[in-house]
Specification:
The chain is α/β, with parallel strands linked by helices. Helices cover 48% and strands 14% of the residues. The protein is built from eleven helices and eight strands. GO terms for molecular function: triacylglycerol lipase activity.
Length: 324
């Protein structure tokens, strides 16, 4: 894996594959998850379809900078800070994490990119698409939402279960067991994975990096962001929203609302999908994303040709007017 350092001193670990001259797709991962959570079947599936694909570890995850100097935030105070102005704010915001993506693009000399974000990564991608419209060619928002307050009774039940099984110590085995149980709770009912497979994956992830305090700092960034629906109305990039019918974290209504707020967004509802990436679906997901990106590229090229033709026409008219 390679890495870059931003102007703010944040180190970002990343993987960059595919033709450097091909359209660039940047994959932005979700809460507490490393870039390796993006399945290889999806990552290399997009590379095989002719794209330059970048995945990276967000700050406070994987091999990127762990911002331990900020300590562990109090999530209740972070939530309350949105209501009553007092005390410390969150260590950083979703906008700061979006700036990390911009820094990565600059370092890799990518002027414009197609963004694909999952869960919290979808929130970051939405923020970029709204505030840096000239840099975002298309947006794909997967299992994400636009309002941190949008939560169902079922989601609350899952979060309570997760809180109960949170390991009290920071040992490796406890972290692996927690990761297994986490993925069982948020997994797709229609595409279950056996415990042995989940344990192998958890062992790989925990062995690569483990940063439970970073998870809480990222969660504080989400909590502090609150309702972002006003941002979505500013998004002009072609948008695809992918959401499962059985997502236990963000209900399907979250995906529907996201698609409704973004102009001309297309919603792809996946029956039986939870809040994970079932390997059996990754070939299809790569196909959906590739089709969306190619359509956005065609639209961009047509717009570019029209602009060039209009410029040439203006030049010709100017010459004719000057000719006696």
């Amino acid at each position: 894996m390679r890495s870059i350092k931003t102007s703010n001193g944040i180190t970002l670990s990343y993987q960059d594959c595919g033709n450097r001259h091909a359209p660039a797709i940047i994959l932005i991962m979700g809460l507490g998850a490393q870039m390796t959570v993006w399945p290889d079947e999806l990552y290399f599936g997009l590379v095989d379809k002719g794209f330059r694909v970048i995945r990276f570890d967000n700050r406070d995850s994987g091999l990127s900078s762990h911002l331990d100097d900020y300590g562990t935030p109090n999530l209740f105070k972070t939530w309350l800070r949105r209501k009553v102005p007092f005390g410390m704010q969150a260590p950083y915001s979703l906008e700061d994490m979006a700036d990390d993506v911009l820094a990565l693009m600059k370092a890799l000399k990518i002027k414009k990119a197609h963004l694909v974000g999952a869960s919290m990564g979808g929130m970051i991608a939405q923020t970029l698409a709204a505030k840096q419209r000239k840099k975002v060619l298309s947006l794909t928002s997967i299992m994400s939402n636009s309002n941190s307050q949008l939560i169902s009774g079922k989601s609350l039940g899952v979060l309570i279960k997760l809180a109960r099984i949170t390991p009290r110590d920071n040992c490796r085995q406890a972290a692996i067991s927690y990761n297994v149980r986490l993925n069982q709770l948020i997994g797709s009912p229609a595409y279950p994975r056996d415990e042995h497979t989940l344990r192998e994956q958890a062992t790989m992830h925990i062995s690569r990096a483990h940063n439970p305090a970073g998870f809480k700092r990222q969660l504080a960034a989400i909590t502090a962001s609150g309702d972002r629906r006003h941002l979505l109305t500013r998004i002009k990039a072609p948008t695809l929203v992918i959401h499962g019918t059985h997502d236990p974290i963000f209900p399907l209504t979250a995906g529907e609302q996201t698609a409704a707020e973004i102009r001309k967004a297309r919603l792809k509802v996946v029956e039986g999908l939870g809040h994970d990436f079932p390997p059996i679906l990754m070939g299809k997901m790569a196909k959906w994303i590739a089709k969306h990106v190619k359509k956005a590229e065609l639209k961009r090229l047509k717009k570019k040709r029209k602009k060039k033709a209009d410029t040439q026409k203006d030049v010709q008219l100017s010459v004719q007017e000057k000719t006696p």
